[in-house]
Design goal:
Layout: H1 2-12, H2 17-40, H3 45-62, H4 67-87, H5 94-107, H6 111-133, H7 145-171
């Protein structure tokens, strides 16, 4: 976690202390969720509620005009994974859905590349397991929280730059 904190300070800098505080709390959430999901295969609601409250409070205190964008990002990311959970209930837990929504509160629009990285990373690991163990490996449960955490780190450190590059390259 110390290395992740240091990297966050290096990338985000200290000019905007509100953004930095949000990033550091987000990193603590991602590490906690990863360890809990790997160990217990659950993402506790208490952690997600506390993180959501922290994200809203920090944003309201330091950047209140972004609350709307962050709420939309939370609904979009959570809604996207909710559709996946409803389509394949045994494959995605509701903790993952709620984590994606909380990630939207922390990242705003940068949640888009975060979720994309998570889905691609999870799919690649799943494919590798299937190649190694055959089609029977499709029944293996793999916690998705660590993949969301990986995507969250990418979203925090490079998500806005990735979105800007994409929009500049393909839509403008």
């Amino acid at each position: 976690m110390a290395a992740l904190f240091a990297l966050t300070v290096i990338v985000l800098g200290t000019d905007d202390l509100g953004e930095l505080a949000l990033g550091l709390v987000f990193c603590a959430l991602l590490v906690t969720v990863t360890l809990t999901d790997l160990d217990r295969r659950v993402i506790p609601n208490s952690i997600l509620i506390a993180a959501a409250a922290a994200a809203i409070a920090l944003t309201a205190a330091t950047d209140p005009e972004s609350l709307g964008e962050r709420a939309i990002a939370a609904a979009g990311a959570g809604g996207f994974l909710l559709l996946a959970a409803l389509a394949y209930p045994s494959g995605m837990g509701m903790g993952d859905v709620k984590l994606a929504a909380v990630m939207g509160l922390f990242l705003g629009r940068a949640v888009v590349p975060a979720v994309l990285v998570a889905v691609v990373a999870g799919a690649l690991v799943g494919l590798a397991i299937m190649l190694r163990h055959g089609s029977g490996a499709r029944k293996r449960a793999i916690p998705f929280g660590p993949f969301l955490a990986l995507g969250g780190v990418v979203g925090l450190l490079a998500g806005n730059a990735m979105l800007d590059w994409y929009l500049d390259s393909f839509l403008r």
